[in-house]
Amino acid sequence: MALNDNKIRFEKDQIVTFNEKTNFDHVINTLAKVLIEKDLVKPEYPKQVILREQNFPTGLPTNPFGVSIPHTDAKWTKHNAIAIGILKSPIEQVVMGSDEAKIRVEIVFMLALDKSNKQLNILSKLMNIFQDPENLVKIRNSSKDEILKIVNKVILEEK
After folding, report:
1. In this predicted model, what pLDDT tens digit does every residue of 22-41 receive, in sequence order?
2. Where are the domains of the chain?
3. Is the predicted pLDDT of residue 88 greater than 80, yes or no?
4. pLDDT digit string (tens) for 105-134?
């Protein structure tokens, strides 16, 4: 199947629920594996996301729980995509713009975007979701089908 370079690829198998206690690296490697298998990102992508997070943390102190938006440079992306991790046992992450302040993250929105203007557009839409605690709780507690509908409607603006 040919991919439209401008379309952001997001399908049900790009949503992973982590029922057991985990850590950031495992979440990133698990989500990235799905994108690598679909040839949406380069094999180096997960390592680059983890390295970037060490220097530029992406934890956001949203209510009622924290979220994270890990990503890396566009050169590691083949096609635009999103992968979401739902964490039943939160992980600690450093807050964006901080050196050491930490938050407990329950949802990871991993972004693979090939253009910075696309990143800004998606980040803006994500912020709209993050500012509504009901949206976050709904995403965390919903089925993969429901999460797919929410993300497609709010972020990707599909019907």
Report:
1. 999 999 999 999 999 999 99
2. 12-154
3. yes
4. 999 999 998 876 566 777 888 888 888 899
Q: pTM score, two decimals? A: 0.91
Work out the number of other CB atoms within 10 angstroms of the CB of residue 100: 7
- DSSP reduced 3-state for 40: coil
Spell out the residues 6+ positions from residue 65 whose beta carbon is closer than 8 angstroms to its own: 90, 104, 105, 106, 107, 136, 140
* Residues contacting 9, CB < 8 A, separation 6+: 3, 38, 40, 79, 80, 81, 82
> Is the domain 12-154 a CATH 3.40.930.10 member?
yes
* pLDDT at position 158: 60
What number of other Cβ atoms are within 10 A of residue 124's Cβ? Answer: 10
How many alpha carbons fall within 13 Å on the CB side of residue 92?
Answer: 3
In angstroms, the CA 145 to CA 138 distance is: 12
